[in-house]
Specification:
There is one protein chain. The chain is of the alpha+beta class and about 130 residues long. Helices cover about 25% and strands about 25% of the residues. The chain has one domain: Nucleoside Triphosphate Pyrophosphohydrolase (Alpha-Beta Complex). A hairpin with a 6-residue loop joins strand 4 (about 50-55) and strand 5. The two termini are about 15 Å apart. This is 8-oxo-dGTP pyrophosphatase MutT (NUDIX family). It holds the Pfam family NUDIX. Keywords: Hydrolase.
């Protein structure tokens, strides 16, 4: 779980379970997800594609490619992107999904992830 920095250009201070950004020209969703994990959390790990969906909430319709990664190394969050981060269990995530102020795409991705039954509790979601 992370909270975006208060200086973030979109949804400052909102909670999210994903790190992510735009896919560069010629870059796959998987390459972009791995790059974003490295840029925002300072970890270099393989990612596994979970699903793709069109999010119509938030700023505008945007495609999300959701990936899962097993992260065992120490996180080094980029303070320009992330103001706080901590690990939550799947039960804790279910408890806060409708209570905390979430980034709309992150909330929808988390719901879809939990409904898929794929969450093992050991993964990190990366958009």
């Amino acid at each position: 779980m992370l909270r975006r920095s208060e200086t973030h250009s979109r949804f400052p201070g909102y909670y999210d379970v994903m790190v992510g950004g735009a896919v560069n020209v010629g870059e796959s969703y998987e390459e972009a997800a791995a790059r974003e994990l490295s840029e925002e959390l300072g970890v270099r790990v393989p990612v596994r594609f979970m699903f793709k969906f069109l999010c119509r909430e938030g700023i505008s319709p945007v495609w999300f490619g959701v990936h899962e990664a097993v992260v065992s190394e120490h996180l080094v969050p980029d303070p320009g992107e992330i103001g706080w981060q901590d690990w939550l269990t799947l039960d804790e995530l279910r408890d806060v999904i409708d209570q905390w102020c979430f980034v709309p795409g992150g909330r929808e991705a988390l719901r879809r992830y939990l409904e898929s039954g794929s969450g093992s509790g050991a993964g990190e979601l990366a958009g």
